[in-house]
């Protein structure tokens, strides 16, 4: 057969890319044709996303792919990070620039809403981990700080849904991205209307929720003319990037595994057929997000490589430019277990200077202060691996069984030191890859929607035979056991 091409746009917190998934009937090859920075824009009133720049890059990615592959291009889908959104008026005009989840407009709102209606009420209705960045608290911030704006809004579209609207004209919300909002009932896959009314929010702007793999129609005529695309479908993948990444986990059928989608955030969990919502899961702050193939992604959000990214940025501001490879090498040479932190401390969410935030945390817990780049990065990586162990133990306790293997997918698989630390800390085999799991999962959902694949099991088989997979076995577990005892004492 002639190769078929599917365009996956994967937008992360640092960068975005257009990836051509080229399928020859046997293997799937992922080719990055366009990469672009995704830099927030600081306006006088808020930290925002440069959404028009993002959309222009998407159009350029379509153009480049069509120029390369012509009429072999069959479809396009967009995935992004969760929780952020845009508001449209009745004419489909964007009312304001989408605000970045690390903006401080939600400071204190989560706590005030919990005090008003009760944390158990919110969790019982949504099954979602409490994080101050969640869409629920962002929408309440809009209501409090910009009176009248919600009344002007005709539709609220999550970030990938906004791009799908501009590409196709369809104003819908895909289920996996809707589930990150803490505004959706994971049992029904519909908006938690009673909760939203209970907290005093209007609901007239909420769009229809559709499942991943939904065809939205062809590219709008204006888009097709600008990009040169002909007869190209717009299809919702797992529009939350983690949903697409988990779709591409190269696990064999029936295996008991945990996954970590590793990038700016680390999302660690399991696939379940139904949500798990009870007092215990609420206390442990686990989340029930929508997955592909009618599954639930039962997981914890962990701060992830954001810690390292911000250390690197802090050094760059001081005039010291390091690559990630250099920082990881220096970390490998630094002393083990000198200083540890809880990666999920609120102090690390949006600090002015990550180095100072880590120093302050170590000082408050009577530990040696990191001094060198290697010591800072080793502190971050060891602490992440130990937090993975803590989450793994909670998962196994809740499920009542041992998870035999940890699949790590996404950009974090390129950090071999963190992968080895994860195997060591958790005393589990770690299977790392594919690196481009999110793009692969995005493409799989497009292929399933168009009938090229029969389902997700066949898709994972395709990923397994098409990708480079690296296996890590545990080492020096006694030292990690001792460090884990110190780490547990740091947790709230």
Give an account of the 3D structure.
With 492 residues, the chain is an alpha/beta fold. The chain folds into 2 domains: 4-235, 2-Layer Sandwich (Nucleotidyltransferase, domain 5), CATH 3.30.420; 249-265 and 303-433 and 454-492, Nucleotidyltransferase, domain 5. It is 40% helix and 21% strand. The chain has helices at residues 51-69, 109-117, 119-126, 135-145, 149-152, 159-168, 175-178, 193-198, 221-227, 241-247, 279-283, 306-317, 324-333, 354-364, 373-399, 416-426, 437-449, 456-466, 477-490; strands at 4-11, 15-23, 28-37, 41-43, 46-48, 73-79, 85-88, 155-158, 172-174, 184-185, 190-191, 208-210, 215-218, 233-235, 257-262, 266-272, 287-290, 296-302, 405-409, 429-432, 470-472. The protein has a 7-stranded mixed β-sheet, sandwiched between helices. It has a 6-stranded mixed β-sheet with strand order 3-2-1-6-14-13, sandwiched between helices. The chain has a two-stranded antiparallel ribbon with strand order 4-5. Helix 16 (416-426) links the parallel strand 19 and strand 20 (429-432). Helix 2 (109-117) crosses helix 3. The longest helix is centred in the last third of the chain and has 27 residues, at 373-399. The protein is globular. The mean pLDDT is 96.
């Amino acid at each position: 057969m002639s190769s078929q091409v599917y365009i996956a746009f994967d937008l992360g917190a640092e960068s975005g890319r257009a990836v051509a998934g080229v399928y020859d009937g046997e293997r799937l090859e992922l080719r990055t044709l366009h990469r672009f920075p995704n830099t927030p824009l600081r306006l006088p009133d808020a930290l925002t996303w440069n959404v028009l720049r993002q959309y222009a890059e998407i159009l350029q990615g379509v153009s480049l792919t069509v120029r390369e592959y012509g009429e072999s291009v069959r479809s396009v889908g967009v995935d992004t990070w969760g929780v952020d959104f845009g508001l449209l008026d009745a004419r489909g005009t964007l009312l304001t620039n989408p605000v970045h989840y690390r903006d401080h407009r939600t400071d204190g709102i989560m706590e005030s809403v919990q005090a008003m209606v009760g944390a158990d009420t919110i969790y019982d209705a949504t099954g979602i981990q409490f994080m101050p960045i969640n869409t629920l608290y962002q929408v309440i911030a809009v209501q409090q700080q910009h009176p009248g704006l919600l009344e002007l809004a005709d539709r609220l579209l999550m970030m990938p849904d906004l791009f799908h609207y501009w590409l196709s004209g369809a104003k819908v919300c895909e289920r996996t991205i809707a589930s990150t909002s803490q505004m959706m009932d994971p049992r029904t896959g519909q908006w938690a209307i009673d909760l939203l009314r209970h907290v005093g929010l209007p609901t007239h702007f909420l769009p229809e929720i559709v499942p991943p793999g939904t065809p939205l129609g062809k590219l709008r005529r204006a888009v097709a003319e600008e990009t040169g695309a002909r007869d190209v479908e717009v299809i919702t993948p797992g529009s939350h990037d983690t949903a697409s990444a988990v779709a591409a986990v190269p696990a064999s059928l029936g295996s008991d595994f945990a996954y970590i989608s590793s990038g700016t955030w680390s999302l660690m969990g399991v696939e379940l057929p139904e949500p798990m919502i009870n007092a215990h899961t609420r206390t442990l702050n686990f989340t029930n997000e929508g997955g592909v193939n009618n599954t639930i992604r039962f997981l914890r959000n962990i701060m992830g490589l954001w810690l390292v990214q911000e250390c690197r940025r802090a050094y760059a501001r001081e005039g010291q430019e390091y690559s990630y490879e250099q920082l990881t090498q220096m970390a490998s040479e630094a002393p083990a277990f000198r200083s540890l932190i809880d990666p999920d401390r609120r102090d690390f969410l949006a600090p002015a200077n990550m180095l100072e935030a880590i120093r302050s945390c170590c000082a408050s817990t009577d530990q040696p202060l990191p001094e060198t780049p290697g010591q800072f990065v080793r502190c971050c990586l060891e602490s992440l691996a130990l937090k993975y162990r803590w989450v793994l133990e909670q998962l196994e306790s809740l499920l009542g069984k041992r998870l035999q293997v940890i699949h790590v997918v996404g950009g974090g698989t390129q950090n071999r030191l963190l992968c080895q630390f994860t195997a060591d800390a958790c005393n589990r085999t770690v299977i790392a890859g594919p690196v481009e799991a999110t793009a692969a999962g995005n493409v799989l959902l497009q292929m399933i929607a168009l009938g090229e694949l029969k389902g997700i099991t066949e898709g994972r088989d395709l990923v397994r035979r098409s990708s480079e997979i690296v296996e890590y076995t545990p080492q020096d577990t006694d030292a990690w056991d001792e460090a884990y005892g110190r780490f547990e004492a740091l947790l709230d």
